[in-house]
Each structure stands twice: as C-alpha cells, then as structure tokens.
Amino acid sequence: NYKPYTGKFATSLHRINFLMWNQELEKLNAIVSYAVKKYGANSVAVYVISFDEITPILIQSTLYENLGKVRWYGSDKIAQNHQITKNVDSALFAMKTNLSNPIYSIDSESKKLHDLKEVLEKQLHEVGSITYPALAYDSYWIAALSLDKNNTTFNNNSENLTKSFKEIIVETAESFDEGISGKIKLNKAGDRLDGNYDFWIVAKDNHTQSYEWEKEHN
Question: Which of 19, 36, 54, 173 could form a Cys-Cys staple with 50, CB 3.0–4.6 A?
C-alpha cells in the first residue's frame, strides 16, 4: 500500500514530488529482489492497482534493475491511460515489463459506441477508455426506464405493488436491447453475469514512432 501524491496532479510531471515514489519503490524492489532469488524471475510478477499516479511510478521504476526483470500486471484504470504513452520513460518501462491491463470488452464496431466517443471527444478533447462511458450510458438508461416503469405501475395500480424496484431493474436490464455494452444478464446479486475482457499493452508504432495502446492478442 502507498499514500498517493495529494497535490494538484494535473500539473506537469516535473513538478511532482518523486521522492515519495522512490521510498515506496525501494521497498518494492527489495521484495522483488528476494522473490527473484528464491523463485527465479520467470516465476515473479508485480501486480499494481493504481490511478493516474501510475505514470510517475513507472518512470521511477526504471531506476531499479530488478523491477524491470519481472512481468507487471495492472488494472482497468491503467488500461489505455494516455499519460503512460505520452511519456517515453513510462512507455518504455511498460513495454519492457509487458504491463498487461484487463478491461471489460465493448464491441468497437458498434455505431452507437462510435457516436458516443465522437460526442465525448468534442467535449473533452481526449478520451481514454470508452468502456466506462459506454457502461454508464447503459446504466443511466436502465435506471431511467426502470424508474418510469415503477412510477407507471404505482400510478395505474395495474400490477402487484409488492414487486420490488430491484426486480423491475432486473427485468428492464434483461429486456434492454438498445445498449452499447451488449446483452445484459444479471445474477441473483444483481451483478453482470458474463462478458469478455481485453488485455491492453503498450506498443511502439514504427511508422509514427509514437507509443500506443494495443490489445494483447495471446
């Protein structure tokens, strides 16, 4: 665990206090070094759960030889993070360690997804992963339609009023065919029952010489 930098992270990376990351990474390096000696580098990996501070973490990790000898795995918040690919040091370290990050898979050929991304890019100028905007879009519509159905049922008194709002949400979700994120099936706890995940890694575009996110195909 670590306490992330709490200042204005939107400022340039040069103004971030990297000393804190050095302290934490020294501890991590010692742990990894011990594990590598005991099990071998091929049997050791680093799993990092992080938000935007992942970029300075990767930059500073280049200073520790053992951290670059093992594979790194990340989380959905790291996948398609543009700050990583904009910085050469962080991008190179991500490539060296084959930093793989899972995120829920959305059909990229969907016209609705393309339209949503276009609207977001006009307003935000830069959009990272489109997965959560797509899920938020579907969630909002399911909530709105469920609320409308609940109010209609209550006003008309046409159905058994003992039906819970949770049941209405489940029914609405499973009959919702206009979403972006695909067919929705929920389990008894109300969680999504199935779905595919993509793993994203950093790669270099030899034509543009820039670093980009791409799906890991294996």
Answer: 54
**Do residues 129 and 80 make contact, with C-beta atoms less than 8 angstroms apart?**
yes
Beta bridge partners of 103: 198
What global pTM score does this model have?
A: 0.77
Run of H or E residues at 73: strand 71-73
Phi, psi of 172 (to 5 degrees): -65, -45
Question: Reduced to 3 states, what is the DSSP secondary structure of residue 11?
Answer: coil
Q: Are 183 and 196 in contact (CB under 8 A)?
A: no
Eight-class DSSP state of 48: -
pLDDT tens-digit map of 106-137: 877 778 888 888 888 888 877 767 888 889 99
Residues 39-64 have a mean pLDDT of: 93
Which of 217, 67, 102 is CA-nearest to residue 58?
67
Stated length of the chain: 218
